[in-house]
Design goal:
alpha+beta, about 25% helix, 6-stranded mixed β-sheet
Length: about 220
């Protein structure tokens, strides 16, 4: 099915927004357990790209010490809308500070009312932020299509990532492993949902696969 191209308006802050995640990625931890160091930004670099639904600047670093599930999405993305109930269900089963879910929308802060209404109507209880860009996604090792999910360990390192609709059991297996002593081998990386048929390029809204988000 065709995908809808995200318009460029509302994303003039690409350079500022992209710096938000730079300080969060101390290293990348793939399934093999091999870690690669990543440079940190200087302290005076701007980090004001993302805001919550009340317009307050937010930073993933505030959740350091927790396993953080970062889901990039948008209200106009059909696969994102189909995936969201799964994330809501998993988050509801894991209350408390050990695991934090954050929905990072690629819509601008001007869309706060619309996004907030969407979140209320669907019972989303975890934080929803606005103003992300594809640069934020690529800094976490993701592609340029949504939905996309990155999971950070307690130290802010990227443990794994999924481009597309994630499968619930695979996601929960990784969360459990990150919450444990991590002495055993990590579980297989979560795969795309079987109904997620891959990338689709073209006009309109993606109905059964990730939606392409031009940078």
């Amino acid at each position: 099915m065709p995908s809808r191209h995200l318009q460029n308006r509302g994303f003039a802050r690409v350079r500022q927004s992209s710096l938000l995640f730079a300080g969060l990625i101390l290293s990348v931890l793939p399934a093999s357990g091999v870690r690669a160091e990543s440079p940190l930004p200087s302290q005076d670099e701007a980090r004001d790209g993302l805001v919550d639904l009340d317009g307050r600047p937010r930073d993933l670093a505030e959740f350091r010490g927790s396993v953080v599930v970062v889901n990039f999405w948008a209200t106009w993305c059909i696969p994102c809308r189909e995936e969201m109930p799964l994330l809501v269900e998993i988050a509801a089963r894991r209350p408390g500070p050990d695991v934090v879910f954050v929905g990072v929308s690629l819509e601008s802060r001007q869309d706060a009312q619309k996004v907030g209404r969407f979140a209320r109507d669907r019972g989303i209880g975890f934080p929803i932020w606005l103003g992300a860009t594809t640069e934020d996604m690529t800094r976490l090792g993701l592609g340029t299509e949504i939905p996309a999910t990155a999971v950070l360990d307690r130290d802010g390192r990227v443990a794994f990532r999924v481009d597309g609709v994630v499968d619930g059991p695979g996601l929960e297996a990784w969360i459990d492993w990150l919450l444990g002593d991590r002495a055993s081998f990590p579980p297989p990386e979560p795969h795309r949902h079987p109904h997620d048929h891959g990338h689709h390029h073209g006009p309109g809204v993606g109905l059964d696969g990730p939606s392409l988000v031009p940078s």
